[in-house]
Design brief:
This protein has 4 helices and 10 strands. By secondary structure, the chain is of the alpha+beta class. The chain has one domain: Jelly Rolls (Sandwich). It is globular, with a radius of gyration of 20 Å. The model has no long low-confidence stretch (mean pLDDT about 95).
């Protein structure tokens, strides 16, 4: 039975609650980072990092990541030291937008690592426990390289709800695909589930990811 027609009913007040924020900006907005040197350093580290190569082989990780071997890149290499200084400013700007009450303590870099994803490589859906803000800056994004896929954190609780229309507004979609450009930095709260779908490019997708903690 259709709902009854409400004559001269007042306009409904519909608002957005519990907003999930995504930060995107050019890395250069807060300082210069030599893109060519950064890419060359990623390749050089990957070639020399035998422990990281071994971990990737033993765990079936496609391509290369320094996540399990080298996460203190800012201390080891000048180009990454400069990168961290720029990232600190982006993270501070995002924390301000999120209106965090940091209680006199700051957000500090917990770890930073390299990802090199070859053709056909993927990175399964995951979160970053024990961190506050996570993010990635993009070093090489050849045509056909996969976008970052972000999942609505409410998805497991939607139960019997119907799917969204294909033309649904961005804030109502269950998944968001963010296609970054080289030199972009993306930031999100670390509880937000995300993944990297299959790299359809013949060339490698290179990124540098990081976590910031509170304390």
């Amino acid at each position: 039975m259709p709902l009854p027609y409400a004559y001269n009913a007042p306009m409904a007040d519909i608002s957005s609650l519990f907003v999930t924020r995504l930060y995107r900006a050019p890395l250069s907005e807060h300082g210069p980072v030599d893109a060519a040197e950064l890419e060359a350093s990623c390749w050089s580290i990957a070639q020399d990092d035998e422990a990281g190569q071994t971990w990737c082989e033993e765990n079936g990780y496609p391509g290369y990541t320094s996540y399990a071997s080298l996460t203190d890149l800012g201390w080891r290499f000048p180009i990454f030291k400069g990168l961290v200084e720029v990232l600190d400013l982006h993270v501070a700007a995002f924390a301000e937008d999120l209106e965090f009450d940091l209680d006199g303590r700051g957000l500090k870099l917990e770890d930073i690592w390299i990802n090199i994803l070859p053709e056909g490589g993927t990175h399964a859906s995951h979160i970053h426990p024990h961190s506050v803000i996570s993010g990635t800056t993009y070093v090489a994004m050849p045509e056909g390289a996969s976008a970052l896929k972000l999942e609505d954190p409410r998805l497991p609780m939607m139960m019997a709800a119907p799917g969204r229309r294909k033309d649904a507004r961005d804030e109502l979609r269950q998944f968001r695909y963010e296609a970054p450009a080289v030199g972009d930095v993306l930031l999100w709260e670390s509880w937000l589930r995300h993944e990297v779908p299959m790299n359809m490019s013949e060339d490698d997708r290179i990124s540098v990811s990081f976590n910031y903690s509170w304390g």
